[in-house]
Amino acid sequence: MKDQLNYYQIPRDEWKKFYQKHIVPLNNQELLQIKSVNDRISLRDVQEIYTPLVHLLGLRLAAQKQLLAKQAGFLGIKPAHVPFLLGIAGSVAVGKSTIARLLQLMLQDIYPDKRVQLLTTDGFLYSNAQLERRHLLDRKGFPESYDMAHLLSFTNDVKNGLPAKAPVYSHKIYDVIPGKYELVDDPDILIVEGINVLQLPSNQQLYVSDFFDFSIYVDAQEELIKKWYLQRFEMLLDTAFQDPTNYYYPYAQGDRQAAFELAKQVWEDVNHPNLDNYILPTRNRADLILHKTENHLVNELFLRKY
Ligand SMILES: Nc1ncnc2c1ncn2[C@@H]1O[C@H](COP(=O)(O)OP(=O)(O)OP(=O)(O)O)[C@@H](O)[C@H]1O
Ligand SMILES: CC(C)(CO)[C@@H](O)C(=O)NCCC(=O)O
User: Fold this and answer.
1) Which entry of 19, 53, 116, 133 is 20 to 30 Å from 250 by CA?
2) Residue whose CA is closest, atom 11 of ligand 2?
3) Ligand 2 nearest atom to the CA of residue 171, by list position
4) Which domain holds residue 102?
């Protein structure tokens, strides 16, 4: 393990040894559940990377509870129930939502009595109508396309144990769904996944990450992420985009090569500059940087020391 300023740089072979003696092999039902998240997830990574990670999260969860109880003791009040917030950041298509769903499943599995909820920040994008009004339609995904004040007040409510409603985004209609909300009502653990969870809103005093108890940045070389983005697009052309009500239906009907060129252009015009200018600079705010290589396999982790 190498020391790197405020991070421990931990190669896979070292990380996989952490906590292994507490780990029991996955049973059939657990394997099936993992396959239902994504049937291409490496089970070796589940065992060697994500299982120790879930144990580390368990330690952080217990430490948060203890700190809250001690502080309440100091104040002479009853400790409040404060949800544990886990943030997951990284580029478009790096695999944030897959990791978020995997961690939700694994945490729920070891804490069957706890309520583990998952949320993406996509719902906090301005609607297409609002984006158009602000001349931001071609800026979807960039910091100014999100209602960050809303995301902050939402996160604040969640931390305070208040019922909070998150708007819902649909990739199918390429817009926020009018009037649709997801209720977050005092969960034990809330996983918040999105490209912007470690960003600083321009006119606010707080980061969303100020509310996080732990944060993960999913990292990989851009060439690989672009490949995963294009592979996902190709796969969607054969599946979801075949639905006539899907926003991308015309692309699935038209010339394949033209559709593919469009996806490449979206990467160059939107996802690449967004990653370079606004997402990557937030990497060093994360408590853990998970670095992936070919086939989404994790080769190295950086854990914040303090
Ligand atoms: N561990 C993994 N093993 C194999 N494939 C994976 C893994 N993680 C993600 N993928 C694939 O990579 C692509 C991107 O993953 P995912 O949708 O989770 O990314 P994301 O970061 O949440 O993207 P977005 O920001 O666009 O929502 C998908 O096609 C997914 O199936
Ligand atoms: C919803 C976001 C911004 C983030 O997940 C992204 O998936 C997206 O839709 N970006 C817009 C560029 C595009 O059309 O792919």
Assistant:
1) 133
2) 140
3) 9
4) 83-304
